# Entry
Amino acid sequence: MKELNWIQMSDYMHTLQEFTRLAVLKQTELTTASAGEMDLLSRIYLLKSPVTPLQLSQQMKMKKSSISRIIHHLLEKELIIKQKNELDGRSYHLILTQKGQEQLKQHYEQFLTPIYLLYRKMGQEQFLEFIKNIQTATCLLQE
# Structure
């Protein structure tokens, strides 16, 4: 495969950055929680079992310090609670509160606006191919 020159690659990188910036901007209408907070809330909800900050850090591919900041904000807003781990007193699990569940249900459409928009405009087949390509690229970058 022919290697592309740096000018072409820079253009592709700018396209990718513009895409991610626009996707995030579509989420800025969230009023009481940031996109990162909504992401973390949705992961806790979808796991349906107590989760540790380390597990979230690994799942979200984020530094534990970044996860800790998000957790701190969610605790202040009473959207999650800490529950001491019965097996290991040094660690704790995060549990979604009733208020957190309500927040998630109230704002999930805004949070998912970019993905719904792409699905509607691209159509199912093209959208699923796009997602498959992103998943492949993500795996390659993780190597």
